[in-house]
Design goal:
The complex is a heterodimer of chains A (398) and B (275). With 398 residues, chain A is of the alpha/beta class. In chain A, 40% of the residues lie in helices and 14% in strands. Chain A is globular, with a radius of gyration of 22 Å. Chain A starts with a strand and ends with a helix. The chains are: A alpha/beta (398), B alpha+beta (275).
Amino acid sequence: MTIYLDNNATTRVDERVFSEMVPFLTAFYGNPSSMHSFGGQVAKAIQTAREQVADLIGALPSEIVFTSCGTEGNNTAIRSALATQSDRKHIITTQVEHACVLNLCKALEKQGYRVTYLSVDRNGMLDLMELEAALTGDTAIVSTMYANNETGVIFPVEQIGALAKSYGALFHVDAVQAVGKIPINLQNSSIDFLTLSGHKFHAPKGVGALFVRKGVRLRPLLIGGHQERNRRGGTENVAGIVGLGQAALLAKQYLGQMQSVQALRDYLETSILRTIPDTVVNGQGSPRLPNTTNIGFKYIEGEAILLLLDREGICASSGSACTSDSLEPSHVLRAMGLPYSVLHGSIRFSLSRFTTREEVDRLLEVMPRIVSHLRSLSPFSSDEGEWLQERTAALIPA
Amino acid sequence: MWNYSAKVLELFYNPLNQGVIEEPVEPEYAVARGEVGSIACGDALRLHLKIHRAEDRIVDAKFQTFGCTSAIASSSALTEMVKGLTLDEALAITNRDIADYLGGLPQQKMHCSVMGQEALERAIYNYRGIALPHHEEDESSLVCTCFGVSEARIRKVVKENHLTTAEQVMSYIKAGGGCGSCLGVIDDILASVNAPKPLTNVQKIAKIQASLESLRPYLQEDGGDVELVDVEGDRVLVQLKGACGSCASSLITLKEVIEERLRQEVLPSLIVEAV
């Protein structure tokens, strides 16, 4: 049996989402752009989905543009903000963004744009003073996450947006991890663009949406037909969009129930802190998503923990260097300035409404054993083993 | 997910020889220790060897490792490999031997095998009282300051593992994997290690001679033969004998067979001439 505690990576498709989608893969295969009623009924289903997604985030249906994924939404928003304000050449983002935003910004730097990457503190929180100091009349767009995928830390987006507005900059929010987990209301908000992705809240992979505030100009990323009112070319992923709509409807119904997800997360977190010594919760001092916890197990390495968890059928993830192709541990935890003894042994557990108390109990049963096994192998510990730490401190720039 | 071999997983799930070796009370034994890596790098190994002084032989080995699956498996493999070896035999173990023992490692994890080899070398050098050859603490010789890797170490791993790209160097000893500012230097080191060494005259003549010897049976089948007269720079002077000496197609034999063979086997710049 699989115990899935990696819901920030992706989620299970809700059965009700799947059954809503099936007819659009079988009976209703018409093209929504067609001039016959067979296609027309499909267009109606897309409109319903648009209303459902809009309703989840307090937007107007006309403000929703369907996309293929979060990466597309983020690319569209940032590139559009630059294209529609060609006199502004400055972007502000943060050091802890998702790779799609960071790598896009690096590419834009090569094209001559100036990018400010805001730092975060030990709790993963932004300093609004630093943001204000970075803003100028040249700033085209401020792009930040709503909530961090690794730590769950929630940024004060309305305050960020208000500051951006005061300099005439557009404000984009990557809300891929936040949508469906915390209430979002874009009415009377300072947010101009907001990215969401279906597979993070029980819709299938390959569908997402970009909120574009009414009155904000959008330069499409994909130029094609008139789909999405000329804002995103390409024949619609009808079944995916219908699934996204249904998932949004369910997410809204279940928002109240996120409290019980949070209770389960808190139980997981406090139990581990209580039963396993030398553990810390990363980002604990900041407001966080109800489903996410990122725990550092000192003196052991994350990939080894994941493999031992995997053998017990438990799925989680790690920001450890050894889990990636690169040799660098998580850029998010490094930006937080966490010590290496915590960095390499950090594990993210992310829950969903499908997570049960029994599953968490099973984790709590095996985790102390796994940690003490790996610590028995490790030359490092809290009281002994400073043998190389000092030497390395000199060699490795923080 | 990494594609680990069955042996790696076996030694990770059930590691052999974990732990420490205490200082022995028997005077005929000594304990040597070698430490590599750090918590910052993401992996570290402390190797303990129990050595029979008179026989200069490793009678027991244990490890303590902080690191991922393959770091733990590599450490455990190393301790199994060295038990019973003399110190000189143990020093001959390369990182590739450790990787082979494990049934291979993913390319990005080869640095785990390097860590094992280095800890072994350090432990033995410590025991013998020899200064380490790497001079890693000497800041001036560091190529990669992020991971503290010296030029000597990069040269060694490039040579022993026949590496050709900076990405491979990164996978083997992490150099260049931090800020990336030393990647140009690593490319230069790769170029200099992999550059073919010019042959000495003696080597060149010996190789030409050997190459001609291997051709002679074919010429003899047709009643001909060839003999090396002299080598002047790139000019190879030969004498065609027997049927070859008078054959109308001897020029073709000379250029297309003999010269072609020598260019492939010895030097591409050679020119063969009949005297």
